[in-house]
Amino acid sequence: MCHIGYLHPVSLTVKLAMVFTTLWMFPSNHMTGTSELKLLPEPTKMVSKEHLERLKSTILINSDSVYERLNLVSAQKPRHRTKEFITLDPYNPQYKQSFENLNELKYPIPDTGELYELNEKKGKFVFRGQESVARWFSTVETNMDVCALKFEDSSLIEYQLETFSSRSEALAADYLVTHVGHCGTCSSLSNLAIYLEHRDLTTVARVCGRKRNAKKIKTCLMKSVGFDEPCAET
Fold it and tell me: What is the tens place of the pLDDT at every residue in 67-80?
């Protein structure tokens, strides 16, 4: 769940990731995040291989705390955190609610039909994901949360990610805002570099999605695309 947080539209991610390339082009005082960064004049401008490699070489040092804040829970038949999977399954247990009237639903019905099942006659609503994901989708249009980073030192290698309730709060804490929405398993700079490197991930993602099980899908996303393990799993 790459915005999750669970990161969403690739076009938006590419535009946001351009901010990171400016770190290498204008590195002097940008570590503090106290000033606005300039986006590249052309959002579609190709990013050099050197910039991509520098993004990939960065190290997120608080990935565990970022993951824990997603508040995922274990399913009755959990996908255990083992050598094969280091994250819990964000899609199970699915959030379910019974109702007599649609107005009783705790969360609004998503715009994307693939995300839910609705049976008005039986009064059953099923969101194809955990409740924490349903909660996030219900506020995605109004939530002002942002994901931001702060480098540990002037080498611009090790950094931390934090979720803030607003852009101004992040900047006041000397963090650089990376994207709208809370930090998630695909929010690292190395994963954003993959979005920049592969401008069209639709085809390869569909190929990976045809694999028979979650383990094979994960392996495909890591080897064929380049996502790190937490991002490929979710």
Answer: 988 888 876 565 55
